[in-house]
């Protein structure tokens, strides 16, 4: 039984929970590295973060024999990282500014628990020099670089000047702070369009906009400064030349306090949406050995220039001719660090802890290998059909990670029953696969995505699977513009060719017949069935989209022969109707489908090739009668504006009686610290406004009506 004790420092209640033993959790990793807890480091470390990265740090601490303290907001009181840690401290309510960014509360937690060091993870306070200073003032070790490096590299303007001085290739641009929108326009005109407007502090794709003309520069300045202030508490911006159609390749560095610096090869991070990474891999197909070495050496030069110590990442943009330019340095553990761990065999969290304690690096540059290939897919609670991923919230009603597959690692901070809410990043997990070759790692990623069960929230697995199987990605023909180039009209899900369509229809029909026969056998159902028990052949209709397909299906044991659309499909399987996974052999090829729902009426939702398809299996008579039913009239969306995601209304730009033009901004919704401008799709007069700035709205909520 967990022991509780409560203390009330000043005017704040801090609750400390101590766990006698770690409960089981949904965070399981299979990684090629091992940790040898032979060196004395710290007795107790506090992790100033949440979710998967907090769990990731706790796991290495346990291997090293280090006690751990978790901090959490009140809504995270039952989170996985809280259960994993030896102690847990509530540091405030849900908003990050009152909890995970609340330095006073976190300092109180350190004092209460006697933690000797703090690992900040990524985001939140991980690159906050003031937090590092406060820790140093009370004799607590910050597991990261010193404050000078944080400040120098955390400010994009200063870091660019330092990079130039260190003879690191840099992007042409304005080396000062842009103060107003009109200043931004003048600077952009001098540099030449297109330009990148981005926050001087922070990273993670927040506070970044590409502008191709003066109007987009003004708009980009406004949104970037607002996002920067919201995410980092610093609204300063800089402008530089936008390198069109580049690759985003970064170098992992590792440096100790004795002047030793290593580069741990590169990570390819070009698959992005809204300047945020989606799929990463190590190494990169694009780099040759010489370019890799020069990039690594320049990354080391920059780290030495700021006397860097800890794990850090130097990001570059690389053009089609392999010219590379310094983008920024992240003075923290990077989200995508697992792929580097897979190919080098190093535990980067362990290395950070060793370095923070003052140990020298155990490796030399010639000891750093590239063993095999690793790919990471960021699994988000997002709707990929909306701008490649707008946040989704909800409770995970069913959750099953594909850890039974070999060479699969899942870094997550959630479990079945966890809530995904509007307060934090919508990441569910980082899914990593490893292989001797890239083709092997990709094949394992495809299997892992097909075997990943997530229910209760909309997720981006359909998009991830399409990316890693797309011919351009498979061949390595990628850039940061991959998604808009491949899906210029937006992501629509898996496109079914004739063979795949027949496979889906046959699988749905076979599943329906199996379910009907099982219902008859177990329940003795007397209702009229589309699949009577006293026969082995049936004539059915399957509705997919707007089309109705005639089907003839016959059964022999666990196999079905299905005739559909002029072809024949054989479907075999164990038909475990209780399992969310549906492993089938279709015309001799193994496929993993998922059945999300099935009804006796014939409505079935199947996940096939990563995409959800809604089908309806009907008897011939039912299909004929159904054709007489009136069609539901679709809502006229041109005259209304609904919220495409849950979030907070930041700005309302119109009022009743205003006339808006096609494309004019109506309001701004902020979700997970990203601001989204919603615009009119036609010229019209505003009839009514149903929300105000500061209000929270849900997906589909009515915001504005037009006449």
From TrEMBL:
What molecular functions are annotated in GO for this chain? Answer: ATP binding; biotin binding; metal ion binding; propionyl-CoA carboxylase activity
Q: Which ranges carry the ATP-grasp domain?
A: 162-357
Coiled-coil spans are none
Q: Which CDD domains match?
A: biotinyl_domain
Q: If you read the UniProt record, what top EC class would you report for this enzyme, in one word?
A: ligase
| Lipoyl-binding domain: residues covered | 632-707
- Cofactor(s) annotated in UniProt: biotin
The reply on keyword Acetylation is yes
Q: What is this protein called?
A: Propionyl-CoA carboxylase alpha chain, mitochondrial
- Origin organism is Nothobranchius kadleci
């Amino acid at each position: 039984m967990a022991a509780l004790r409560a203390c009330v420092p000043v005017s704040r209640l801090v609750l400390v929970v101590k766990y006698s033993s770690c409960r089981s959790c949904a965070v399981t990793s299979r990684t090629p590295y091992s940790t040898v807890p032979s060196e004395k480091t710290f007795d107790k470390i506090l992790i100033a973060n949440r979710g998967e990265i907090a769990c990731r740090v706790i796991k290495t601490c346990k291997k090293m024999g280090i006690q751990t303290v978790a901090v959490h907001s009140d809504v995270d009181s039952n989170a996985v990282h809280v259960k994993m840690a030896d102690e847990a401290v509530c540091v405030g309510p849900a908003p990050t500014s009152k909890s995970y960014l609340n330095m006073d509360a976190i300092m109180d937690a350190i004092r209460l628990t006697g933690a000797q060091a703090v690992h900040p993870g990524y985001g939140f306070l991980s690159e906050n020099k003031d937090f590092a200073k406060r820790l140093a003032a009370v004799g607590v070790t910050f597991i990261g670089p010193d404050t000078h490096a944080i400040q120098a590299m955390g400010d994009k303007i200063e870091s660019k000047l330092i990079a130039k001085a260190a003879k690191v290739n840099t992007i042409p641009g304005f080396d000062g702070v842009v103060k107003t929108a009109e200043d931004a326009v003048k600077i952009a005109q001098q540099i030449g369009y297109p330009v990148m407007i981005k926050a001087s502090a922070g990273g993670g794709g927040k506070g970044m906009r590409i502008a191709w003309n003066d109007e987009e520069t003004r708009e980009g300045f406004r949104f970037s400064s607002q996002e920067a202030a919201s995410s980092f508490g610093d609204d300063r911006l800089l402008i530089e030349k936008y390198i069109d159609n580049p690759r985003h390749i970064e170098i992992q560095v590792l440096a100790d306090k004795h002047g030793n610096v290593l580069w741990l090869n590169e990570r390819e991070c070009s698959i992005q949406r809204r300047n945020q990474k989606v799929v990463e891999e190590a190494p990169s197909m694009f780099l040759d050995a010489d370019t890799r070495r020069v990039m690594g050496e320049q990354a080391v030069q920059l780290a030495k220039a700021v006397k860097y110590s800890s794990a850090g990442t130097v990001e570059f943009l690389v053009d089609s001719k392999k010219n590379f330019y310094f983008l920024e340095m992240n003075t923290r553990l990077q989200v995508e660090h697992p792929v580097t761990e897979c190919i080098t065999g190093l535990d980067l969290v362990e290395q950070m802890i060793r370095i923070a304690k003052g140990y020298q690096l155990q490796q030399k540059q010639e000891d750093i290998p590239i063993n095999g290939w690793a790919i990471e897919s960021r699994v988000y609670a997002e709707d990929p059909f909306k701008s490649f991923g707008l946040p989704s919230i909800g409770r995970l009603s069913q959750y099953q990670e594909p850890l039974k597959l070999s060479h699969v690692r899942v870094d997550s901070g959630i479990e079945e029953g966890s809530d995904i809410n509007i307060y934090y990043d919508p990441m569910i997990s980082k899914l990593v696969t490893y292989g001797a070759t890239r083709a092997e790692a990709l094949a394992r990623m495809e299997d892992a995505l097909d075997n990943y069960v997530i229910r209760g929230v909309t997720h981006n697995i359909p998009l991830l699977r399409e990316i890693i199987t797309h011919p351009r990605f498979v061949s390595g023909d990628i850039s940061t513009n991959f998604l808009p180039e491949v899906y210029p009209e937006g992501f629509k899900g898996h496109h079914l060719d004739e063979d795949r369509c027949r496979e889906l229809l046959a699988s749905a029909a076979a599943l329906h017949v199996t379910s009907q026969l099982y219902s008859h056998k177990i329940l003795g159902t007397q209702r009229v069935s589309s699949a009577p028990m006293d026969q082995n052949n049936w004539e059915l209709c399957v509705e997919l989209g707007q089309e109705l397909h005639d089907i003839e299906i016959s059964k022999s044991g666990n196999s079905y022969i299905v005739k559909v659309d002029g072809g024949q499909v054989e479907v075999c399987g164990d038909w475990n109707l209780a399992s969310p996974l549906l492993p089938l052999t279709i015309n001799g090829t193994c496929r993993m489908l998922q059945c999300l729902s099935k009804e006796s009426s014939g409505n079935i939702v199947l996940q096939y090739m990563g995409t959800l398809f809604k089908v309806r299996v009907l008897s011939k008579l039912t299909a004929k009668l159904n054709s007489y039913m009136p069609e539901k009239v679709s809502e006229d969306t041109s005259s209304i504006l609904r919220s495409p995601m849950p979030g907070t209304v930041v700005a309302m730009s119109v009022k009743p009686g205003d006339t808006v033009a096609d494309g004019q901004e109506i309001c701004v919704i902020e979700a997970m610290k990203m601001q989204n401008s919603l615009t009119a799709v036609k010229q019209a007069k505003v009839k009514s406004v149903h929300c105000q700035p500061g209000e929270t709205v849900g997906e589909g909520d009515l915001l504005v009506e037009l006449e």
